[in-house]
Design brief:
Layout lengths: L1 H22 L10 H7 L5 H17 L10 H8 L5 H27 L13 H8 L3 H13 L1 H5 L26 H13 L6 H12 L12 H13 L7 H10 L3 H13 L5 H13 L5 H6 L7 E8 L4 E6 H12 L14 E2 L3 E2 L9 H15 L1
Antiparallel strand pairs: 1-2, 3-4
Helix pairs in contact: 2-3, 3-5, 4-5, 7-9, 9-11, 10-12, 12-13, 12-14, 13-14, 14-16, 16-17
């Protein structure tokens, strides 16, 4: 009798537990596939929805998208985006976003891990960026910062050029950006390379003007300057017609793009039809680069009387300084032989950290002063 009562009480207790479990939404047998979990996202029980969400998220992280696999978590979640239940649609979208974010975080960590082979990095945009910036630790670090700041722009390759602005504060404008905004300038230069030929002329001109101007453009020093110089070098190479060769050379010298600068100097010195201003820029750059053929190139230009610049250096004096090609050739010949040009009549001479001398300071206020300087200078060189 006692044992029968005990069995009845055990049976009753079991039934009560089953009913209670069902009322709480706890499944008697746990669903085991993404197809089951997606349906559970619409469950009235919070515990069931949360469990399904965790399962789909975990499976989604490990899944490789394949339209042919019906139980692939990513595929199932994409189906969920068009589910008849609004709850399932919303939950599916949120899980997919979480999976994408987690995957991107994982990819960025691999990118930052210098033990990871460059071929194993699959962050969107890395292949294109590394083509121009390289694959070393500097390039990886720079790209990681770019991706963390501009993920949508980098992923949206079709609208890449639209992220450059012309006076638009919501986009990257070369005329408005801070010189210290290295990431922004990396992005601007990269877009300028990738979108060469498709950018509006005004935006290409703004990039060129900013990079060549002392008052605009990115700082020439800093942690990421090496990567920036690589990008700027390739930007110079991908501009076939504009800007002018002189502007390209000025940019190459400013950002220490030595290969591009040397090539431009070769072309400009070999072409006698280039402007006087371009010839002056080529000579100054050749001197700064310490080229072996410097003296012979300068000697060839001692008879070039073309005017390169006319500047009014000091407004209060109302004196205009005219610089001829031969003036620059003589001053640089004196300098390359260890002689200070100021001692031979170059009274307005100003030093320049990038090009030895400022081009507009290598001239004279009148022809008499010029002739005297040339006679004395050439006599010293003989």
């Amino acid at each position: 009798m006692f044992s029968s009562c005990f069995l009845l009480s055990r049976t009753f207790a079991f039934l009560v537990c089953v009913v209670a479990a069902k009322s709480l939404g706890i499944a008697e047998a746990r669903a085991e596939s993404p197809s089951d979990w997606i349906a559970e996202l619409d469950s009235p029980a919070y515990h069931t929805r949360e469990s399904a969400t965790r399962s789909l998220f975990t499976a989604g992280l490990a899944a490789h998208e394949s339209a042919g696999e019906e139980n692939n978590a990513i595929v199932v979640l994409r189906w969920g985006l068009s589910h008849e239940s609004m709850e399932v649609r919303i939950a599916s979208g949120e899980i997919l976003r979480r999976i994408e974010s987690a995957n991107n975080d994982r990819k960025i960590e691999l990118l930052k891990n210098f033990d990871t082979s460059a071929n194993e990095i699959d962050v969107p945009g890395w292949e294109q960026f590394s083509r121009w910036a390289g694959t070393d630790h500097r390039a990886r670090t720079s790209f990681a910062k770019l991706y963390e700041r501009f993920p949508r722009q980098i992923i949206d390759r079709d609208g890449f050029a639209n992220w450059l602005g012309d006076g638009d504060e919501t986009r990257l404008d070369p005329y408005r950006m801070s010189p210290d905004d290295l990431d922004g300038w990396l992005m601007v230069t990269w877009i300028g390379i990738e979108e060469q030929g498709r950018l509006p002329l005004n935006l290409s001109s703004r990039i060129a003007m900013a990079l060549s101007s002392e008052s605009l453009g990115p700082s020439v020093t800093g942690e990421g300057q090496v990567v920036l110089a690589r990008l700027i070098g390739h930007w110079i190479d991908t501009q076939p017609n504009a800007p002018t060769a002189r502007t390209k050379l000025l940019i190459a010298m400013r950002y220490q793009c030595v290969d591009q600068a040397s090539n431009l100097v070769d072309r400009m010195l070999a072409d006698s039809t280039t402007s006087a201003a371009a010839q002056v820029m080529a000579m100054l750059s050749a001197a700064a680069l310490e080229r072996d053929d410097l003296q012979s190139q300068l000697m060839k230009r001692l008879d070039d009387t073309r005017t390169a610049h006319v500047w009014q250096l000091i407004a209060s004096r109302k004196t205009k300084i005219r610089t001829e090609v031969r003036d620059v050739a003589l001053a640089l010949l004196l300098h390359s032989n260890g002689i200070d040009p100021r001692e031979y009549g170059f009274d307005e001479l100003q030093a320049d950290p990038m090009l030895i001398y400022r081009d507009h300071s290598l001239g004279f206020a009148d022809e008499k002063s010029r002739q005297t300087a040339h006679q004395r200078g050439l006599a010293k060189l003989k």
